[in-house]
Design brief:
mainly alpha, Tetracycline Repressor, domain 2, 210 residues, 0% strand, Arc Repressor Mutant, subunit A
Length: 210
Amino acid sequence: MRKNSKDTIVSAAISLFNANGFNGTSIRDIAGKAKVNPANISYYFENKQGLLEHCFTFFFERYIEEIEKGFTSLDQGAAQCLKQIVGNIWYYQFENIHLTRLILREISIDSQVVRELMSTYLMKERFYFSKVFERGLKTKEFRPLTSDYIILQLKGLLSMPFLNTQYMTEVLHVPPHEPYFAEKYKKEIFKWVDGVLCRHEYERVYLAVN
């Protein structure tokens, strides 16, 4: 994406919202960091709330695209499809780590904007995950687990590193910004899919003959 004043404003806002919180950041703060006139922010986003909403939309439009790309592999099997979706989401979030951290933190706060997200993007997310789980249950790839609870666990795995970066760095001494961490953590999520969701081979054989 070509860098312009709009992109610079968004980058500055993400940095400041993460450091100081939405309420602790002013338009003047954002303009100062972006080195633009405050009027530029009004021109592009109207106000600070409009800027935050832009961040939400920018993030989730691409988030859903990553899910949809993975969903096209459903005919290859539910487990393979789920891993593709999870891998897509994980790398998208890792490559946009600061924006991801901001979005995940903000959607934990009850607001009109968040409720609108729930009725659009997050319901789409649930739709795709549910379709994958339904396929896995039908083909007996997956154990008969409750999909809503599985979604909760999966989203917890995908969000934890971005919401707890200080804990990871200071307590676990795990560098969440390093590429090798991204690759290793993705493999750990895949192990969770195989170990928790997927039936083991002997289970599938048993079901096939009974």
